[in-house]
Amino acid sequence: MHPDFWYERWQSNQIGFHLLEANPLLVKHFYALNLTPKTPKKNSPRVFLPLCGKTLDIAWLLAQGYQVVGAELSQIAVEDLFIQLNLTPKITQNSDFIHFSSANIDIFVGDIFKLTPKILGKVDAIYDRAALVALPDEMRKAYTAHLLALTNKAPQLLICFEYDQNLHVGPPFSISADEVRKHYQTQHDLTLLSSESMTDGLKGKFPATEQVWLLTPKS
Description:
- The protein is of the alpha/beta class.
- The chain is 27% helix and 27% strand.
């Protein structure tokens, strides 16, 4: 999917995917990653959110005592995020990325496929609610391989949808259990934590199931 698609969505405020509260599935299932906040917070686990947008999940994670690092294509989204957080970021250029940072949070604006482990830094876990489902089929294999290399196969909480793709062209795209296994079962043990029908369907129109997966690196 061409980056211009997402630039245009943010520019025109077509962001129906943006929730006005922390995702209830994050709040319910984040414990499964078995991460413990520490004092001072700079020593706490660092959670990576790929294609993070301006999600309020970030505010929730910070409030729980975690560090957050994100990657996002749209600078508009990241500027809005820091306004929401009531933080004034330090803004620097880091290779191909504009780096927005403040206490316990780093967001890199740019193409996630150009992000490197050196730029990203240490990651203790991944929370993917918006990345895998945002990418078309031909990009998902490259994305998941890149994510594994980028984070040294960090444990992951993954939220995705499954529905009849013929009813909606996406995004978000339908991700079956078989596809999750195809991408991740070689390197991770997979646990399906939740699989629930969406009360109002996808976009209020299409029957869909929302699934939460825990990906634990194989020993």
